[in-house]
Amino acid sequence: MPATPVYIICSPRPQVGKTLLARLLAEFLLLKNGNVAAFDVNLKEPSLLDYLPRVTETADVIDTYGKMQLMDRVIVDDGLAKVIDLGFHAFDEFFKMTDEIGLLKEAARRHVAPMILFVADIDRVSARAHEMLRGQIPRMNLVTVDNEYVVRGELPPAMGGGRLFRLPALPGFLKTYIDRLNFSFTGYLRQEKDSSTELHQWTRRNYIAFRELELSLILQRS
Predict the structure, then answer these.
(1) What secondary structure does DSSP assign to 113-136, as a single string?
(2) Source organism's superkingdom (predicted)?
């Protein structure tokens, strides 16, 4: 059986599209598998919990108890895909913890496959954080997300050399539309009969990219 996937979506910077990516991925996994477990590690609203309350619970990594509770929930081979929306405020503490406990080795021992999705920006804080992750996370487990709405142009060279996930930019009026708390990407795909609309094609393109990412995890473990 393939290992249980755990997707950790992160950035040391706010407002880079991290929760949007978490929403997309969680909805894709819900559509494909019928269920997903999502964890919201954020301070500000709106957050993943607001968009997908049925499958999301809050978590924190402020103290040892919170860290262990989260790890006990996600590093378990139960066949249920996990998505962690890691707030920028918790970035340093979370990856300090994962380094201390040897997350990747422990995950492999428990037949769990973590995938770190780092949402890029062009500032120094992001550059230092990405460099830190490259030193801690194996290349196959680290994916740099190029959100074209945030990174307007080429990624910094140090971020463009590994695995990439490109998130195309949407026009401002569509961004406002999908930011509504009652909006569902899968619901839109099912209800919108015109598959040529920009939002329909954008959502399908991202779902297909998630499928390819999932297949790479399976091949990596085989």
Answers:
(1) EEEEEEE--SSHHHHHHHHHHHHH
(2) Bacteria
